Amino acid sequence: MDEKAHLNALQEQVETALRACFQGREPRGDIYDAMEYSLLAGGKRVRPVLTLEVCRMCGGDPALAMPFACAVEMIHTYSLIHDDLPCMDDDDLRRGKPTNHKIYGEATAVLAGDGLLTAAFEIALREDSPLPPQRVVAAAACLARAAGAHGMVGGQVLDMAAEGRAVSRYDVEQLQRLKTGALLSAAAEMGCIVAGGTREEQEAVRLYAEKLGMAFQIRDDMLDLEGNEATLGKPIGSDQANEKTTFVSLLGMDGCRALVKKLTDEAVCALSRFGAERSSFLCWLAEALAGREQ
Question: Under a CB-based contact definition with an 8 Å cutoff, are residues 91 and 238 in contact?
């Protein structure tokens, strides 16, 4: 398999599906424009790619997982819109473009995030799904848990509470396990659920995604200091400016590099039950994200 070409193909499929999500909707002021502005702004599409590829690895049809792939990306995008607001991180750039509130204003940006959150469950729970109802419900419930106070939202609360004060490594790991890891884990687990995977397979892909998510966040912390602003498409040094305790401030760059490698190795190991051939792309993806520059 040409992993890079396969990743590009998956990303293109996701882009096509996302562009189709709001076609033909009745205009409602700027709201759909604002939603699409951030949803279609690009990005690595790691979460929907995980959903599609885990579904394939577990013996399912990735096309049946596409609504859930779109749903998880909508929730991720809504979180970015809200994260950039003046009451949160107050960022002006996202993926090299002005943040949503800089274009549409704060009120519309809040509503665009709200609109994407609810649209995610609208598309995941569509009435014409060919999947068995129990799989649809289980996948949607998995996503809801990961997005709410027990997952991503809870992590954001911890993140805000940690600003301006020193916190322990345990606190930072808990914060990131919720803020970043929960949605990545749900993305992978939904693919397994759609495919009809076993409980043991769900646990394996969840562990893979948890390790991947922590490594991803540590690399993100590193790039906030050593990354190129033009490549990243957002300002660097924002963690330091906001007085956030990060993995870099706790472990240093060398410690972070060692931990990223350890977590990536553990992520790859978690997929061993699927065999080298079936899991080759996801193993490659873990390695690629560990060495990313954006």
Answer: yes
- 104, 115 contact by CB (below 8 A): no
CATH 1.10.600.10 fits 3-290, yes or no: yes
Binning the chain into helix, strand and coil, the percentages to the nearest 5 are 75, 0, 25
Q: Do 70 and 14 meet the contact criterion of CB atoms below 8 Å apart?
A: yes
Instruction: Tell me how far apart the alpha carbons of residues 194 and 189 are, in angstroms, rounded to a whole number.
Output: 9
Decide: pTM greater than 0.90. Answer: yes
Look at strands 93-94 and 97-98 and give their pairing.
Answer: antiparallel
Residue ranges covered by each domain of the chain:
3-290
- State the distance between the two ends of the chain, measured CA to CA, in whole angstroms: 24
Q: Can you tell me the distance from the alpha carbon of 176 to that of 154, in angstroms, rounded to the nearest whole number?
A: 10
pLDDT tens track for 88-114: 888 998 988 999 999 999 999 999 999
Give pLDDT tens digits for 182-234. Answer: 999 999 999 999 999 999 999 999 999 999 999 999 998 999 887 665 555 55
